[in-house]
Specification:
By secondary structure, this protein is mainly alpha-helical. Helices cover 72% and strands 0% of the residues. It is built from 11 helices and no strands.
Length: 225
């Protein structure tokens, strides 16, 4: 493909598709070039390096997050909408969690998200660093609750790449973990109650419960002032 038919935007979109399908470990310029119908050298001309491509792709997915109209809804509704949108975005792109652990993620996409988040907590009544802390508390909670599901996707992909029946291996590992947990009464009771839960899966309604607790706590902080 001639160099001028490629664009950075097209490369980044295709990289996101490849990352969604294969994860960080499956992203390489040769595979990306094949998807684009282009030589890897032409891809490098646009994005410079694999690390830079991961940063560009990682920033682009932040544009998927919904930014609620702050003049149309109260701050809790707006914060809840953004938190759910963040959660869904990470679940769609589970490689992002790993990328955030190995790359400094920044750019207009994430900045767009962060700026609107700060506006929400300022609208609630937080000022300066307190608005930063409020936003960070929600972000860290949402990120944490996605870790299990992101890890499950990554683990399943690795098992398939290594050969064998990934689903059967996951069942065996879950059975071994359950056997160990049976020695502990509280874990035993929980496992009996959620027999069909998958690896790393949070209890049902955990996101809603956690957000409610956090927002109640933030409102209590505001009321105390």
């Amino acid at each position: 493909m001639p160099r001028d038919t490629l664009t950075t935007e097209r490369i980044v979109r295709t990289a996101i598709e490849l990352l969604d399908a294969e994860g960080l470990e499956g992203l390489n310029m040769r595979s990306l070039g094949e998807r684009l119908g282009s030589a890897a050298t032409a891809v490098y001309w646009h994005v410079k390096s694999k690390d830079n491509l991961v940063k560009l792709a990682g920033d682009e997915v932040w544009n998927e997050i919904e930014l609620p109209d702050l003049d149309a809804v109260d701050w809790r509704t707006a914060a809840t909408t953004m938190a759910h949108s963040l959660y869904n975005m990470i679940i769609r792109h589970p490689w992002l969690v790993m990328a955030m652990g190995t790359h400094v993620m920044y750019g207009p996409g994430k900045s767009r998200h962060d700026d609107h988040g700060l506006a929400i907590y300022e609208r609630a009544g937080f000022v300066g660093a307190d608005a930063d802390r409020a936003m960070a508390t929600v972000f860290i909670f949402v990120l944490g609750i996605t870790l299990g599901e992101s890890a499950a996707v990554t683990l399943t992909r690795r098992l398939r790449r290594e050969g064998g029946d990934a689903e059967e291996q996951m069942k065996e590992m879950m059975a071994q973990a359950s056997e160990i947990a049976m020695r502990f009464p509280r874990l035993h009771a929980r496992i009996e109650a959620v027999q069909d839960a998958g690896y790393g899966e949070a209890p049902d309604k955990s996101l809603e419960f956690g957000l409610q607790v956090i927002f109640d706590g933030l409102e209590a902080q505001l009321a105390a002032r």
